[in-house]
Here is the input.
Amino acid sequence: MKKQEDKKIIVVQRIIPSYRIDFFRLLDKSLKEDFQVWYSSNPEKNKIFKTKKTSIKFFRNLGHCYSFLGSFWQFGVIFIPIKRNDIIILEGNPRIITNFFLILRCYFKRANFVWWGHLYSSTSKNLRSKIRLKIMSFFSNILFYTDEEAKKYKKFKEVKNNIFYLNNGVDLEKLNPLRKSYDSSKREIDIFFIGRFTKKSNINLLLKALINDNCKNYTAILIGAESDEEVIEYENILKLHYLTDRVTIKKVITDERDIAYFANRTKIFCYPGSVGLSLIHSMAYGLPSLIHDESKYHMPEFSAFKENFTGINFKYLDHNSLSKSISKILEDENILKNFSQNSIQIVESKFNFIFMKNKFLEMIKQISQG
Here is the structure.
C-alpha cells in the first residue's frame, strides 16, 4: 500500500496467537513501515500462544498484562506513539480496561480506531452481550471475524458504524502443499480432533460416543493436551473404558507439518464442543466435519460449516446422537468425498489469509478516505 502522510496502522492485542503471526507478516509486506503490532507478555502457560519477546520487526512488546477481577490492564498501552490520522485496531474485549484509555487518546489525537472482535462467542452471556453491543455502538469502525457476524449486526437496528469483516481463516500457502488427496478408503484413522482439551471442546462427549456399540470399531486421534500430565489423565480414562487400542492422545501441536501428518491419515473431523478456527483448519485439509447443532454455542468461524454440504450435525450435548452421526457419516465413501471437496472449496474461496489480507486492506483504504 502506498504510504500516505506517514500514517501508522497499529494493531493492539493482549496476546499474539501463534496462528496469527503469518497473517501479520502478510499485512506487513503490503503496509511495510506503516504497520505495527503491539502486544503484552503472556502469562498463560500453553503452546497455542506466543509467550516470549520476538525479533519480528513490526512487533512491539508492551510488557506484562495484569489481570484483576476478571479484567486486564496492559500497562505499556499508555506509551504507544499515536498521532493524527493513525488507524488503531483494538482487540474487541470489554474486559481490557486499558482499551478505553487508548480510545480517549485516539479521540484527542484525532486518530481513527477500530473495534476488532466477535459479535457473539460460545461463552457469551445475555448481560455481557448487551454490554458488548452497547460499547460497539460508540465505534465508528467495527471489524468482525466473519461475514455472517457483519450481516447479523446490520439487522439489529439502523447501523451507523462502518462494518468490516475478515473471515478468519488459515494460511493456504503453507497448508496446501501439505494436503494429500482425499480417499477415505485409504485412511487408517476414522476421527480427527485438534484443539485444546478444555470445557469448551467437551472431549469427554466424544469418548462417551465411542463407547457405544455402533462406534466400537472406530478409531480416533485427539490432539490438544497441554502437558504430559494431561496426556496421562486422559490415557487413564481410555483404560477405564477400554478405548486404549482405538484412541490416541497427543499434546498440543503447532508445527503445520506435524498437524498435516495426522490430518492426512484421518477420515473426518469431529469437534464435540464449541468449534472455532479448528473447523476451518480441518476443512482446509479436506476433512468432512461433524459438529453439534446449536449455532449459538459455537465460535464465529462456525459459519464456514454447511450442513449436508461440508458435513453433518449431531444433537447438542447428546453422546448417543453423536455416536449415530459418526456411524452415519463414515458409512458412505461417496458422501465423504463430496464433503471433502466442498470443504476445500469454501476455505479456498473466503476463509484464508489472502482473503483476510484483502479485506483488511480494503478497510484501511475506506477509513483513510474518510
The chain is about 35% helix and 20% strand. The two ends are 17 Å apart (CA to CA). The CA atoms of residues 41 and 64 lie 5 Å apart.
